[in-house]
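Revision sheet: structure tokens.
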Amino acid sequence: MGLKQTFESAHSVEQAQQPFVGLVGFGGFGRLIARELAQGSKLTICDPLYSRAVLPDGQRLTLQGLAEVAQSDIVILAVPVSAMAHVCRVLAPHLRPGTLVVDVGSVKVAPMQDMQRLLPAHVEILGTHPLFGPQSARDGIAGHKIALCPVRGSKWRRVAAVLRRRGLQVLVTSAQEHDRELAVVQGLTHMIGKVLSDLGPMPERLTTASFDLLREAVRMVQDDPPTVLHAIEVANPYAAEVRNAFFERAEELKAQFEAHPEVGKTVPAS
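Predicted:
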């Protein structure tokens, strides 16, 4: 066999080994997923809000209906948490036995319950939460973290291995543990970021290192769609407890400052 034939044969094997991946949702995070998967898989996309799917580099991706996308080896649901139950109901009749269904939402308890309840028993289920977004991963996903919440089946182990090879730090956890920690990690970050963003432009000249970090945190979350904030603050069953504790402490500090208004005032010279 000549060099050309050897190359073509190896290329054919590589192509044959690429999984068929169906992506439901081509919003901000869906586009990030598509960018990362476009070269290593046979990717098709379903999103009725889009008439075409084009990546920033100009690459055009295949758009199909939900029934066609459901025939993939892996189906990724990049949809709002509030839409998960509806998408699962519509998707369920079209899924093949052995298909791995993956979600990428920022909340895990309720979506995982919806997926177990509404998807057929012959499919595998994996909950994931990439702990990054289009802003923080604009230069690539290597070095970032991703949480995996295995629910049904064993194919998730192969997914974990692929993610590690892509440079991601894989953290395996349960849906409950995930939501409990993220109620603090994301719940407080996004709430504080939203409040600061609504206050108006932030200072850029006379700043400290700690303020620069805070401003960067606000910048990374201020463009998230309202559905993300709603999921983080409302759909997470532990968020209200954390949020209430934060506001209670803030009120205590406010009362403490107002009880001693003279503290910090300049003492007039005698």
